[in-house]
Design a protein that fits this description.
CATH topology of one domain: Uridine Diphospho-n-acetylenolpyruvylglucosamine Reductase, domain 2
Strand order of the largest sheet: 1-2-8-5-3
Bound molecules: protoporphyrin IX containing FE
Strand content: 5-15%
Largest sheet: 5 strands, mixed
Number of helices: 20
Length: 438
């Protein structure tokens, strides 16, 4: 017996619907219950929309799945880095990379994160119109470059950003089955992507070369035992996985703060009470409760990773159904995070959802912005720290007012980003004069 699900008379009918508006399509599947099934040509796809079933797939029965799908095709670009490796190779790499993200180790990164955020803040002018998405992309790129590779890549940020955009244009094409062939055709998009990859490769190989023989205790230093190709793949992976996701989380947080003056006021009250006239540090994090809740709620409404896909390696029983070998399994943070039974009035930005009591009432995996299980985000502690410290640093000095009339449109590519950026006007906060930190 198959789970229920939508049907289409045309072989590619559902593919077309998915591509036109993936969020709306996945949301419509929720009506079929905890598991929905549909087919795209010969490919069966199972959509899991229940926290217990997501846990089955990501944690309890993870060995029955591989990543498959879009991320596997990303190997063209990321090689055999942590994000794309499978099975034993993945396990070995995870062991290599994971220690770099232990709490004690990343604590030292706090100063870098705050330092770059302060420098950005000092460049903003009162009344200036900014695209806060582009600003956050610059900032997180600089932070990942400095913390993980001890390199100052800020000067090259526009070039890297352009290269990443060219690559993402191709990613958009390959996030679905049957599109590998599209990559081989020398379209302008593909040619641009290939050139972009060559530029990024050059940058990364240069970083590696600069560093051989001088272990500075950063992540690249830890990886340098491996061969150049392996280091390149791991570095490219962390560069990409480690900056756009966090930049998007921060951008959506600013966007939501701009629409929710009460939350913004609570944030400012917290920053004044906890920090007074100094910049935040790693040690302040446990007391920056409102700041953290703002990020939690922003990642609920706009999860940077909005969907997770797996392919069944064997027949596997999930809930009441057997998912056959070869089938694709999809789970969506976007859909789960807007379920009204877990989040009443799901569209509402509400920090009260993140009190310890409210959290305790929801099941595990009703919220999974970082995925979970052995393939969950290795950078999660890094991302929380960066999100909290950057938001706190910038919000101490500035209010960002949304520019009226500018359309903010969520665009679900590999990550959920704003299609036309998020335009804001920077308004200085009078309470905390700039430069007063210490
Ligand atoms: C708000 C920020 C971030 C979000 C929302 C996020 C989200 C995710 C998600 C959902 C996955 C799992 C994908 C899957 O299971 O298919 C993942 C994996 C991963 N993330 Fe993150 N991430 C963030 C920040 C970071 C940072 C800062 C780094 C590194 C510096 C990073 C590095 C990675 C890597 C290497 C993996 C693959 C892990 C593995 O397969 O073993 N991420 N991330």
């Amino acid at each position: 017996m198959y789970p229920p699900g939508p049907k289409s008379r045309l072989p590619a009918g559902l593919l077309f619907q998915f591509r036109r508006d993936p969020m709306a399509f996945l949301t419509s599947l929720a009506a079929y219950g905890p598991i929905a099934r549909f087919t795209i040509g010969p490919q069966a796809v199972y959509f899991l929309n229940d926290p217990a079933l997501v846990r089955e797939a990501l944690v309890l029965q993870h060995r029955s799945f591989e990543k498959g799908g879009a991320l596997k095709r990303a190997k063209v670009m990321l090689g055999e880095g942590l994000l794309t490796a499978e099975g034993d190779a993945h396990l070995a790499q995870r062991k290599l990379v994971q220690p770099a993200f232990h709490k004690a180790r990343i604590a030292a990164f706090g100063e870098v994160m705050v330092g770059y955020a302060e420098a950005m803040s000092a460049r903003w002018q009162p009344g200036q119109t900014l695209d806060v998405w582009s600003e956050m992309m610059h900032l997180t790129l600089a932070i990942v470059g400095k913390t993980l590779f001890d390199a100052d890549v800020e000067g090259e940020a526009p070039e890297i950003e352009e290269a990443i955009n060219a690559l993402l244009a191709v990613f958009n094409l390959i996030t679905l089955p049957f599109t590998e062939l599209l990559l081989k055709i020398p379209t302008p998009t593909n040619l641009r992507a290939r050139a972009a990859m060559a530029r990024l490769d050059k940058l990364i190989y240069k970083l590696i070369e600069d560093r051989r023989g001088s272990d500075k205790g950063d992540l690249l230093g830890m990886l340098l035992g491996a061969d150049d190709r392996q280091v390149r793949d791991e570095a490219m992976t962390l560069f990409l996985a480690g900056h756009e996701t966090t930049a998007n989380a921060l951008t959506w947080a600013w966007y939501l703060l701009g629409q929710n003056p009460d939350a913004e006021a609570a944030l400012h009250a917290e920053l004044d009470a906890v920090l007074g006239d100094r910049a935040p540090t790693f040690e302040d994090m446990p007391r920056l409760v409102v700041t953290e809740r703002i990020l939690s709620e922003a990642m609920r409404l706009y999860p940077p990773g909005w969907t997770i896909g797996r392919r069944a390696l064997v027949d596997v029983t999930i809930g009441e159904f057997v998912i056959p070998k070869g089938a694709l399994v999809l789970m969506s943070q976007h859909v789960m995070h807007r379920r009204a039974d877990f989040y009443p009035e799901p569209e509402k930005f509400d920090l009260a959802r993140w009190t310890p009591e409210a959290k305790a009432e929801r099941p595990q995996f009703s919220y999974f912005p970082f995925g979970g299980g052995p393939r969950g985000c290795v950078g999660e502690p890094f991302a929380w720290m960066e999100g909290v410290l950057v938001l706190a640093t910038l919000a101490r000095h500035w209010k960002l007012r949304l520019v009226p009339g500018h359309q903010v449109v969520p665009q679900p590519l590999v990550t959920l980003r704003p299609r036309h950026g998020v335009l804001v006007t920077a308004e200085p906060r009078s309470l905390a004069p700039h430069g007063g930190g210490g």
